[in-house]
Amino acid sequence: MDGETGNKVKNVREASAADSTSEEDNCAVTGHGSEKEDVQAETVASDHDEEDSESVNNPTEEAAEPEENTSQGWDVKTHEVNSSDGDGPPSLHPETLERKKNTSPTQAEEEGSTTAPEDNEDSNSEDIQPKQEQREDRDVPRPSQRHRLLQMKLAEFFQKKAGDEPQLDREVPVSEQEYEKYVDLLAELKQQLAANSESAQRQAEELRFKSQQRLDKVENEWRALVALKQDVAVTVLSRRLGKQASQAKVEATLATEKLLQHELITLRRKHIKLQIKVRRLEAELREGDQRARDPLQLQFEQLQAERLEMKKHTKKQNEESSKMQKKISSSLELLSNIKEKLFWSQMEVQAKREQLAVVEATVARKRDLLTRTRQARNGLQRDNVRLKEHRGLLGNSVLLQDFEDTVDVSDQLEEQLEDLKCRRAEMVFSCGRWRK
C-alpha cells in the first residue's frame, strides 16, 4: 500500500510537470469554491488567537501566528478535490502542496507584522474581553488542530514515500476506499470546525452582550453617582460662593475627575496587557530554561521534587499514625475502664443473684408457713361456725335484749297472774262465806 501511494504521488507530479498550464487553470477554477470555505474556516479558527494577540504586541507571537495560518492554509489546500476531471475519481493537487510548502516563514512574518498594527488599533478601541476564558479555550485541542495534524502527517507520509522509492515507475492505483475514508474524515472535521466556530461565535456574542449590559449598568450607576456628587457639592459650596460660581467650580472638578478616570482606565488596560505579556514571557523563559538545561539536571530536579513530595506524604502519614496511636491508646484506656466497670457490675449481679436466691428460699419457706396457717385458719373458722351453731344466744346482743325483754314481760305477767289468782281466791273465799 505504501508503494502504491508513493508511485501515485510520483506519477501525479510527472503529469503535473507535463501539463502544468492546464492543471493550474483547473486548480484556479475548481479550487475557487473550496478556497472560500477554507478561508472562512481559517478565519473562524484563528479568531481567538488574533484576539489574544491584539492585547500584547509580542514579536515572537506575530511571527508564530502567521506561520500557523500559513500551515493551516497549506494543510487545507493539500486536500482540495479536482472536480474538473469528470472521467476518473477525484485526486489531490500536489502543486498546491508544493506551493504552500514553499511559502517562507519570513513572508508569513511580514504579513503578520503588517496586520499587527491594525489589530492593535482595533484592540485599543474595543472593550476588555475575558482573556482567561479565551486562553483556556485555546489550550483545549480543537478539531482544527487535529485537522492540521492529520494533514501534515499525510503530506509528510506522501513526501517520504515519494523520496524513498523513486525507482518504481509503474503506475499503481490508489485505493479509492482509503481516499473516500480520508475525504469523509476531512468533511467530518470541517463540520466539527464549523460547529465549533458557530458555538464560539455564539459564546463570544453572549459574552459581548453580557459585558455591554454590565458596562451600561456601571455607566448608569456612575452617572447617578456623578449627579449625586454634583448636587451635594453645589449645595455645600453655594452657601459660601453662590450658586453659579459653585456650579461652575463643581463642573470643572468633575471634568478633571472624568479625564483622570479615563487616564486611569487606559493605564489599567495597559497594566493588564503588560501583566499578560510578562506572564507569557516568563512562561517562555521558563520553557527555554527547561529546554536549555541538562536532562540529568532536570531528572535530578524531578527526583528532588518527588523526594520532597514523598517527605511531605510521609510526614502527613506519620502525623496521621500518631493521631491514630493516640486514639488507640485512649480507646484502650476507655476499654479497660469499661471492662473494670463490667467486672464490678458482674460481681454486683452475682451478689444480687445470691440475695435473690436467699429471698426466694425465704419466700418459699414462708409460703409453706402461709399455707399451713391458712389451713389452721380454715379449721378454726369451721370450729367457730360449729360453736356458733351450738352456742344459742351467746354473742347475739339483739336476741339477748329481746330475750330479756320477753323474760321481763313474762315475769310481769306471772306476777299479774299471781295477783289475779290471789284476788280470785279471796273473791272465792269471800263469796263462799257469803253463801254460808
Proportion of helical residues: over 70%
* Radius of gyration of CA atoms, rounded to a whole number: 62 Å
Count of runs of 4 or more consecutive helical residues: 12
> Could you give the count of β-strands?
0
Q: Which whole number gives the mean pLDDT? A: 72
Order of helices and strands: HHHHHHHHHHHH
Span between N and C termini? 198 Å
Which structural class should the secondary elements be placed in? mainly alpha
How large is the share of residues in beta strands?
under 5%
Q: Are there runs of 5+ residues with pLDDT below 50, and where?
A: 1-10, 15-133, 166-172
Task: Specify the biggest β-sheet.
Answer: none
Coarse shape? elongated
Organism: Perca flavescens
Biased composition (Acidic residues): 108-125
Coiled coil: 183-221, 264-320
Keywords: Cell projection, Coiled coil
